[in-house]
Each structure stands twice: as C-alpha cells, then as structure tokens.
Amino acid sequence: AAVTVSPASAATATTVTDTIKKAIASEDLHRETLARLEHAGEWKKLSQQVAALELEFDTISARATSEPELINSVELDRQLRGLHRKTATIVERISTIVRRLEHDDNLLESNVKIWQEHATFLEKQSVPAAVLERAKAIIKKLEQANVHVREFRDDALLGLDRAIFLQTRIEDARALVITRQSRLDAQRLLLEQSPIWQLEAASTQFKLVAEKIGAARQTQQDFLLQDGARLVVLFFFILILSTWLFTRRAGETVEPI
C-alpha cells in the first residue's frame, strides 16, 4: 500500500521523538515512489504503439488521397474505427500513468515541505548534529525523487498529447468519410430519380463511370469493325455446313419406293 505522510499528522509532532519516528514513513514513501517509476516506464512502449498507429493512419490517408475514386467508404470507415479504438485504449492507459505520477509528485512535494519544517524544529531543539543531518538527508532524497517523478510525468504527458492528437486526426478523417458517403448517397438517389437525358448533370464520379462505359463500348465497336467481316464469313460457313448436314441426313433416312 502507498505510504502517505499527511500535513495534519506532521503538525501534531510536538516532540523530537515523534519527529524522528516520521522518518520511517518518509523512507517508505521514497522507496515505493521509485518502485512505481519502473512501472510508469510503460508509457514508452505505449508511445511506440502510437508511432505505429500514426504510420498506419498516414498510409491509409495517402491511399485515400491518391485514389479518391476507388475509395470504399464503408471499408475505410471500418479501418478508421479500428485505429480509433486502439488509440483510445492507449490514451486511457497513459492517462492512468500520468495521474499516478501527478499524485506522487504532489505527495513528494508536500513531504519535502513537512521535513523542512521538521529540520527547523530539530535545529531549534538543539538535537545532535547526526540527527539534524539525517533530517536534511531525507529532504534531499525526497527532492531528488520528486525531480525524477516530474521528468517521467513530463515525458508521459508528451506521449499522451501525441496519442490524443492522433485520436483527433482519426476523428476528423472519419467525419470526412461520413460526409463524403452522405454526398455520394444523395448523388446516387438523384441519379436514380433523374431521366436519362439529365445524366450529364450528375457528379464527376458518375461522369467517370459513364466515360468508362463509353470506352468499353468504343472498344467493342473497334473489334466489330476489324473482325466483323471474318465473323460474317464464319457465320455463313457454319450456316451452309449445318444446312448441308441436315439435308444429307434427311436424304439417307428416306426409304426407296
């Protein structure tokens, strides 16, 4: 369990003995705080995961930007939702780490002030030099631990900010995809309800589809122009051959009178 040295209990330490005994709790606080820093280092692995998600998001965005006419909005939104879910999980985990570090930071800072008061009290009581030095050593250890905690907190905050920014980018991208899909649905409905001669007023995407259909039709016409004569000759050859075979077979089955 975490050790807490409260300011209220410090204020009730009216004797040298009570003051010295509080060193035990402060040493425990210092030791447990450093131990928690080992677990707080998890934010580094989480930050690496954020970097991988950023790369994946940039790849998806680049592909969608370079080939907008080939975008499958449903599939793209599914990919973005997956990225958002992973990023949100990381944001929550780093937030938990940062809150723990902030708590330790406040606790250490409070205990440093308490022990500064203890040192002043011990000095006024003319305690042995070794006892006073012990109190000052506790202050120094708590201050050093506080510095380490703040360094971890600041680094974790940078990781948290990076993850939140990625989450925001993904949310913006999803909003664009939803808007685009709504526009395409409206254009499709308009196309279905419009007469054939009004197709030229359709959107650029539908014009692209019409151009592809026209290109396919032109290819078919070119094929007929180039090979049409041979196809006609082949058709009549097959027709004549079929007629001859049926006529010959009919002649063979007629019985003589």
Question: Explain this structure to me?
Answer:
With 257 residues, the protein is mainly α. The protein is 86% helix and 0% strand. It has helices at residues 7-11, 16-40, 42-66, 73-124, 129-193, 204-253.
Radius of gyration from the alpha-carbon trace, in angstroms: 41 Å
Mean pLDDT: 79
Number of helical runs? 6
Largest sheet, in brief, is: none
Percent strand: under 5%
Low-confidence stretches: 1-12
Keywords:
disordered N terminus; 257 residues; mainly alpha
Explain briefly what this protein structure is.
It contains six helices and no strands.
Secondary structure layout plus pairing:
Layout: H1 7-11, H2 16-40, H3 42-66, H4 73-124, H5 129-193, H6 204-253
Helix pairs in contact: 2-4, 2-5, 3-4, 3-5, 4-5
